[in-house]
Structure formats: structure tokens, C-alpha cells
Write the C-alpha cells for this entry.
Amino acid sequence: MNIIDGRLISSKLKEEYKKKIANLSKKPFLVMIRIGDDAASEIYVRNKGNLCSELGIPYSDLHLKSEITQEELLKQIDDLNSNDEVTGILIESPIPSHLNIQEAFDRIDPKKDVDGLNSFNLGNLASNHPTFTPATPLGIMTLLKEYRVDIEGKRCVVVGRSNLVGRPMALCLLNANGTVTVCHSRTKNLGEITKEADILVVAIGKPQFIKADMIKEGAVVIDVGINRVQDSKKIVGDVDFENAKYKCELITPVPGGVGPMTVISLIDNLIKTV
Ligand code: NAP
């Protein structure tokens, strides 16, 4: 079977983490900052909170009003930084456009930055001394390891260059000795580049954009995209899964591939805070 089962791997990890956390003398404590009323963020925060509860990790959802000023937000982060009980802080994106999200990420104490999105932790990843790696690339690296995908010397192509997924993903693959090309919206002849990939990671947010003829026979394809289609009733990835799956050695489905790994990887980072 060439379909990567993210749910299976994440539930296996959940059991491992449950035992690990039960044996910790000090428990992690997560604070999730949510600003405004983005419906998807509310669901993500709820899911992360439920997982923390299941694993015996205390957490709190700090819901701030959308009119909050940058100064007020930074003050909230300062308070959490100086609270010794709080070991992990994350800010759920998107946040209202009048706020500077990178400045907020950078205000989080790097030792509490469980999403790995502040410049210090991203810099450590870039210099191959990773501290906290962003959850989605971390989860993908775990999937590749679980499915015994050898990265060293492989031609890796990452489509998408966001700070959240594409950039840190490319760095993870580079740190694992892959030969990495990063593509984005200005890339010319995208299909010719993706077709060279032994390992192709796609994170662009465009439903079924990568077609089977853009994929090399026998490639490992990781689809990060989450796109709601048919009046939001169905979720599809960035890869045309139904046609692409016949060409791939391994491929992640959407849903059930990368998504469950992103949530569980947050726990991996949280454990490192104590
Ligand atoms: P993002 O910040 O919007 O970044 C999208 C990236 O895709 C940008 O770098 C953009 O290029 C590139 N891009 C857009 N159109 C392109 C095209 N036609 N050809 C090549 N590159 C193109 O998105 P993101 O936060 O990285 O998320 C990407 C997708 O992954 C979304 O569907 C998101 O919902 C999903 N996601 C899933 C998980 C999960 O756990 N499964 C986690 C996070 C995100 P430019 O830089 O040139 O604009």
C-alpha cells in the first residue's frame, strides 16, 4: 500500500507521549493565544486543547479581542514569558491585519516558542542546530522517518515558501542531506522542476494544483494543502491525489496525512519545554 497513514502514526506517537508525560516530574503548561473570531483558529485551538487534555497536559486558551493593539499584545506575551508556570506559548494565525505577527512571535521567549516561529528558533533551524522546529515540517520529517524514506542525496522539491511550512520544510530536508529546490508563485516551468523530485512536498493552498504529469514515477509525495471545496463540504489537498497516487511510491492523503502529524508534533515540542 503506498498511502501514508498520518492518523496511524500520530496515534502511535500519542500513546508514546502519554507514557512519557505521565513520567515527567514537571508537566508542560501550554498557553494558546487566539485573537479575534477566526472560525478555523477556534477549531484548531479546540483540537490542540483536547489533545493536551487527553495527554494530561494543562493548557489555557487566551482569547483576545480583535481590537487589541500591538502594545497590549506584546504586554500579554511579556506576562506569559515571566510566568514560570507557563512553559509553552503559541499564537494561532491568522491574526487581525493591523497587528505585526512576526514581532509577536519574536517577543515569545525562545525557550517557550513551541511553534518554532520566532526568528531565533528559525535561525537555529537554518544553521542546522534545531531547537523548536515548526510543527508541520517536524511532523512531515517524522512521517518520512516512520516510512523509512531515505533523504540523503535525494532530489527534494518543496513548493511553497511560507515561514510556517515551506521554508522550514526546505531547511529540514537540507539538514537531512537532501538536495533541495524551493519553488514559489514566481517559479518558471514549475512542472519541469517538480518532475525531477524524488521527494516532493507541496504547501501552496491551491486545490489539486499538482497534477500527475508533474510528478516523477516512483516519487514520495507529501501534500500539506488543506482546501475546502464544494461549498466547504469537502477537503482536498494541493495534489490531484486520485490520479497522482498511481505514480507515487508513497503519497499522503488529505485528510489523514500531514494534518494529524501537525497536531501531535506540537506535543513533541511541548515535552522539550520541561
Ligand atoms: P501561504 O502562507 O499562503 O503560502 C503559500 C505559498 O505557496 C507561498 O510561498 C506562495 O508563493 C506559494 N504559491 C502560491 N501559489 C503558487 C503557485 N501557483 N505555484 C507555486 N507556488 C505557489 O500558505 P501556508 O501557510 O504555507 O499553507 C499552505 C497550505 O498548507 C494551505 O492549504 C494551508 O491550509 C495548509 N496547511 C496545512 C497544514 C497541515 O497541518 N496539514 C499546516 C499548515 C498549513 P509566494 O511566496 O511567491 O507568494
